[in-house]
């Protein structure tokens, strides 16, 4: 059987202790021999193993257990939950010392080639801090004199598509602000 539950013996112990399912069904579900399940029931096998609830683990539902306990020929079917676990916070990956100078250089390159990008967008692209980007933009960074602009794509800090998407977003924001300003000016002119 390819799909077997997590901790099959402990699951078998729980099923023997808490359900009326046949040994054959438990053996098939847990990928054990039927005599092994009978040994669990008799107390000869799995003496020190603590029972593991397949319901709490999400491997079986109560309905599944009830349906199989009513029909001796019905096999237990493993509940394949699709866990949609996404990391809420992007973990910071270690950057070697030799690569750390690439971030300020990439930030300088982006401020020169894409002045419409906000500090926040540059931070996301190169993995720096807002304070650092602000200091680089205003030429007050501690190492400004020796910084040389370096394309972040070459340094593998982000992709060209990431830069293009950020630039497009910044352009849309600029266009939106321009339209709002024109609208306000028209309202002022019509009110006069």
Task: Reconstruct the topology from this structure.
Layout: H1 8-18, H2 23-30, H3 34-42, H4 62-70, H5 97-100, H6 102-113, H7 119-126, H8 130-137, H9 160-191
Helix pairs in contact: 1-2, 2-3, 6-8
Please give a structural write-up.
- By secondary structure, the protein is an all-alpha fold.
- It has 2 domains: 8-70, no CATH class; 97-191, no CATH class.
- The chain has 9 helices and no strands.
- The protein is elongated and about 90 Å long.
- The mean pLDDT is 85.
Structure characteristics:
192 residues; 2 domains; 9 helices; elongated
In short:
With 192 residues, the chain is mainly α. It has helices spanning 8-18, 23-30, 34-42, 62-70, 97-100, 102-113, 119-126, 130-137, 160-191.
- Tell me the number of structural domains: 2
In angstroms, what separates the terminal alpha carbons?
82 Å
Based on Cα principal axes, name the global outline: elongated
For this structure, the quaternary state is single chain
Runs in which pLDDT lies below 50 for 5 or more consecutive residues are: none
| Largest sheet features | none
Q: What is the element string, with H for helices and E for strands? A: HHHHHHHHH
| SSE-based structural type | mainly alpha
Beta content = under 5%
Mean pLDDT: 85
Helical coverage, percent range: 40-55%
Taking all Cα atoms into account, the compactness measure Rg is 32 Å
**DSSP helical segment count:** 9
List how many beta strands DSSP finds. 0
């Amino acid at each position: 059987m390819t799909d077997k539950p997590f901790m099959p013996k402990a699951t078998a112990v729980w099923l023997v202790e808490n359900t009326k399912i046949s040994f054959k069904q438990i053996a098939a579900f847990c990928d054990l021999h039927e005599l092994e399940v009978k040994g669990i029931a008799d107390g000869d096998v799995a003496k020190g193993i603590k029972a593991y609830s397949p319901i709490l683990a999400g491997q079986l539902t109560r309905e599944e257990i009830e349906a199989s306990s009513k029909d001796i020929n019905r096999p237990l079917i493993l509940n394949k939950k699709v866990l949609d676990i996404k990391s809420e916070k992007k973990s910071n990956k270690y950057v070697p010392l030799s690569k750390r100078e690439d971030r300020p250089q990439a930030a300088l390159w982006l401020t020169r080639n894409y002045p419409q990008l906000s500090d926040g967008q540059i931070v996301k692209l190169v993995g720096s801090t807002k304070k650092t980007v602000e200091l680089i933009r205003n030429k007050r960074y501690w190492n400004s004199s020796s910084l040389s602009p370096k394309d972040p794509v070459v340094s593998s800090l982000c992709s060209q598509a990431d830069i293009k998407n950020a630039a497009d977003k910044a352009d849309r924001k600029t266009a939106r602000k321009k339209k709002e300003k024109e609208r306000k000016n028209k309202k002022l002119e019509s009110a006069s």
